[in-house]
Each structure stands twice: as C-alpha cells, then as structure tokens.
Amino acid sequence: MRKRVLPLLLSLVLCAALLPVSAAALEDGTFEYSIKDNQATIHKYIGPQGDDVDIVIPSTLGGCPVTAIGRPSSSGAFASVKARSVTMPDSITSLDHYAFSSCTATTYRISNNLKEVGDNAFLSTKATTIDLPDSVTNLGTSVFQGSALTSFRMPAGVKKIDYDTFYACKSLETVTLNAGLEEIGKKAFENCPALKSLQLPASVKTIGRYAFEGCKSLTSINIPNGVTTISFGAFDGCKALQEIEIPRSVTRVEGDAFRDCDSLIDLIIPNTVTYLADVAMNCDNLESLTIPSSVKEGSMEYGGSAPKLIVYVNPSSYAASREKTKDKLSVIDDASVDSDIHVRYNGRRVSFGKYGQNPVITGGRTMVPLRSIFETMGAAVQWDDATRSVTATRGSTVIKMTVGQTNFTVNGQTKTLDVAPRIIGGRTVVPVRAIAEGFGANVGWNGDARIVSIRE
After folding, report:
1. What is the DSSP code (8-state) at residue 225?
2. Could you read off the pLDDT of 236-284 as tens digits, one per residue?
3. Rounded CA gap, 175 and 200, in Å?
4. pLDDT at 372 over 90
5. 30 neighbors 46 (Cβ within 8 angstroms)
6. Taking a C-beta distance cutoff of 8 angstroms, is the pair 61, 31 a contact?
7. How far apart are alpha carbons 347 and 444 in whole angstroms?
C-alpha cells in the first residue's frame, strides 16, 4: 500500500497544476483580475473609495491589455463603489452584468472601443450623462434602470433597446435615437415621468408592450411607418400626450394601448387595422374615436370616464354591430371613417360623411369638398352656378376660386394653385392647403398616416 502513495500524490499535484486559475486569483492592490488568452479581465475593484476618489482603470494588468470588466459573482466589479469619476482605457470592449450598478460616480469616461454593455451595467448610477461610443452594438436589459440620467444619445450601432433599459429613469428628459434602430423593447421607457418628446427613427418596426407606460409628461411621439402592431399598454398612462397619428402600416392595436391618455381628444384608427382591442380606456377628455370597417375582430371596450366620447363607425361595419349595443355610448354613423385620408382641424377629425365625398389626392395635393373645409373653418360660402365659382368669407378675409382655374384670389390678391378646383362625383373639391393657408392657418401633412393637420 505504501508504494502507491507517492504516485497518487504526484498525480494530484499534476492535476491541480492543470486546473485553470480562478477568476480572482490575481490582484495588484487595486483590482482583482484574471488573465486568459493574454487578455486581462477585471473582476473586482478593491482600491480606495470616497466622494473625492477618481478611479483610473489601467490599460494593462499583469502585462496584458485590459479588455473587459467582469464580475466576481452576482454583483458587479464596481457595484456600490463610492467614487467621483471612473476613467476607462480604450482597450476595454465589454462590460459585464452589474458592472457599475449603484456606483456613486457622477462622471464616466467610456472606452472608445466598447462593443457590449451587459444587463444592469449602470443600474441606479448617479451620472446624469453617460456617452457611449458608436462602436456599441449590444445593450443588455435594464442597463440604465433607475439611474440619474437626464439625457442620452443612442449609439449608431444599436438595433434594439431591450427590456427595461431606461425603466424608472425619473430625471430622463431628452433621448436622441439612432437611425437604424429597429426595436423598442418591452418596458424600455416605462415610468420615465420627465420625458417630454421623442422622435422615433423611420427604421423602427416594433414597439413592445408597456414601452412608454407611465411617461406622464410625454406630449408628442411619432409612430414610424413599418410598425405593424401597437402593443398592449404601449402608451398607457401618457397623460400629457396630446395627439397621435397611427401610420397605415399598422394592422393591430392591442388592449390598453392608449389607456389613461387624458390629454387625447381625438383618435383615428386607419383603415388598415383589422384588430382593435380596448385601446382608449379612461381617456378622460377623449371626444372622438374613428373606427373603420376594416376592423373585423377585437374587444373594443371603452369604459371609464370619457363623458364627451363619440364613436364614429360605418353603419354596416363590425364595429357598428358591437358599439351600438353598449349603454351610455354615443355612436354616429359616418361612412367617411373608411377614408384613406383624414383631415384634423385644431386636433379634431373632420367628418366628410354629410358631404358625400372623401378627400382624394390629385397631382400631389389633397383635395376636399369645398363646403367641408370652409364650413369647418367658420367661413360663409356662396356658390355661383353660372360661373362655377365659390366665394368664402371669414371676418375680413375673402377667398374666391373657380372650377378649372389655377388662379384664385385672397382679398383681391391673385395667387396660383398647383391643382385647380374640380368636380369629382358631383362634388366640387378644392386643395385643402391653399384654403387653410389663405385663412392664415398652419398646415401639416403626415404621409405615413395620411393625415392633414390644420391649426390656428
């Protein structure tokens, strides 16, 4: 038996020598780190801490370049570290999960070659700005959750804002998104109460569930053409959202999409939507909801406090068959809900049902029944059948137009139309922009939603 002891001990020693060095086996008094493939990864900061401490991460440790911030276990390498600032070398390409979570540093100098940022990397950090380079292509979940950010610029290489990325960033006011961004993930901006406006790039195709829930100061946001679904609760609780224009790429609007949007007064569902759920529950000031005949399924419940709400439907539609059975809900038959083009005047949809002609685009200009726009804007209209001309008067402004002629006058001053008034389907139609601007209004056009907006 004794003859076997030495070979056994020798075998154990050799096996131990072949085992990999543990992640925290090396340290220099300030950092615990490991080396693999001639690259160093920092696993834990063990240096001095304090509100006046400026941490400078070295570019090399143990003679090898520092390429990553790892983590010792469940926490991050710099988790809860007290410091004034952190400076990273450009050799670092990745930050592991929780890397700087709850770190008190208010200033970060980020590596210009950073590519990956792990989950919760800056969770609850105190910095108001963190400038990530365009080399970053991957952001994990909850990266900035609960942080003190006030502004942020999304790196050019990022395609997706993941789950909870900016959740509960209470002070976040300004976000600049990158061209090429494709997805706003679930709860990405949930409970960001200081965010006031956001421009989504045209590349965005997906807006996840609860993406902007609780953004109570958000007054304006666009939905890009290419988005096909407005997900459940996407804008729930956006109490300051004044207007939304849904593009014609959308085919599905899920439940609570605009719940508790108290500042919305008008919601137009385009005639591309086939599924419509209870999208506008508890929108206190909602006055008008337009549902087209294209909607063939969905719950379409509109309970809660909206005493002025009127639902406009085509009388022969699925929506009409459902809405007219509900108590205390005002429903009006309006064939113009199926129009490809809509017009809003001071935030409210103009109904063309009684005018017998929906808006059309001719020669690149939106044409509307002449009485519809004149009467909506409060003008008195006189039609001369002999000359086929119209005179509209509002206050001190007088507009005169003639069918077939591109010249018209505003208070006697001759102006030129791109497209002359004409008769379509027995109705005289006129270019809406020329009329509205003639009365001094501002006119906007959303080609993705096909909505003309007139404001004065």
Report:
1. B
2. 999 999 999 999 999 999 999 999 999 999 999 999 999 999 887 789 8
3. 10
4. yes
5. yes
6. yes
7. 12
**Residue written as token pair 């459940």:** 232
The answer to whether the CB of 159 falls within 8 A of the CB of 134 is no
Average pLDDT, rounded, for the chain? 92
Q: What are phi and psi of 276, to 5 degrees?
A: -140, 120
Q: What is the pTM of this model?
A: 0.90
Identify the sign of the CA torsion 151, 156, 157, 163. positive
> In sequence order, what are the beta bridge partners of 13?
none
3 state DSSP class of 92: coil
Alpha-carbon Rg for the chain, nearest whole angstrom, is 31
Q: How far apart are CA 16 and CA 7, in angstroms?
A: 14
Range in 103-117, 300-314, 359-373 the model is least confident about: 300-314
Q: Which two tokens stand for residue 443?
A: 């006119």
Long-range contacts of 217-222 (CB under 8 A, 24+ apart): 217/193, 219/263, 221/197
Q: What is the pLDDT of residues 137-168, one digit of tens each?
A: 999 999 999 999 999 999 999 999 999 999 99
User: Cβ(113)–Cβ(132) under 8 Å?
Assistant: no
d(CA 36, CA 22): 11
Amino acid at 224: P
- Bridge partners of 207? 184, 230
Cβ(61)–Cβ(81) below 8 Å: no
Assess contact for 60 and 33: CB atoms under 8 A.
Answer: no
